[in-house]
Amino acid sequence: MSARDDEAHRDEPVEVGHGHDYDEVYRDAADSGGPPWDIGGPQPALAEVLDQGVTGPKVLDIGCGTGDLAIALARRGHQVTAVDISRVAIDQARAKAAREGLAVHFEVQDATALSLPSAPFDTVFDSGLLHSLHRYGAAMDRYLASLPGLAAPGATAYVLAVSPAAGHGWGMTEQELRASFAGPEWTGTEVREIDVVAETGGRTLHLAGHLLRTVRALDT
Is the confidence at residue 217, as pLDDT, over 80? Predict the structure, then answer.
């Protein structure tokens, strides 16, 4: 993001914390194209990995929103389970998948208390959830503690997060992301700088962010 864009959009709301009424967020934003993170497709940094970076067949999308990433994965033949705390978002996601004739298993669940009998998965995606839990320590800790049990040995996990460098007063640093996916459960962790896209008020924002890729260790 340029300095001019950063100044113009510094106060744009692009994060909602744990415990917020996400159903209300989705309802209130329905007439304006959805909340800022609902951009009509996967985040560009994740779209880049869909064709070559996904092991399968079983894939989990945590915090799926209205389902664009999950649907993109299903188009590629993956067996996709996708969860979100908002029933409104899940209803929209199911309708999108039905229009394309795609079988995606959508569930309304709190990511900090997941119950998924179909676990473990071969690839796990978190597109903007962890950074929303970051300010809520106990909730984040519960979520992170559950992830190793959701990922099969050798599974790949991707986490997309806004960086504090975006200038909105919140986000996760590279060091915080790496600490969240330390050994012995995770190995080969890589973090790269990316743009995170948001849309609000008819404008597209490009926020400084990170994409973490890590692998569930084989021997834990």
Answer: yes
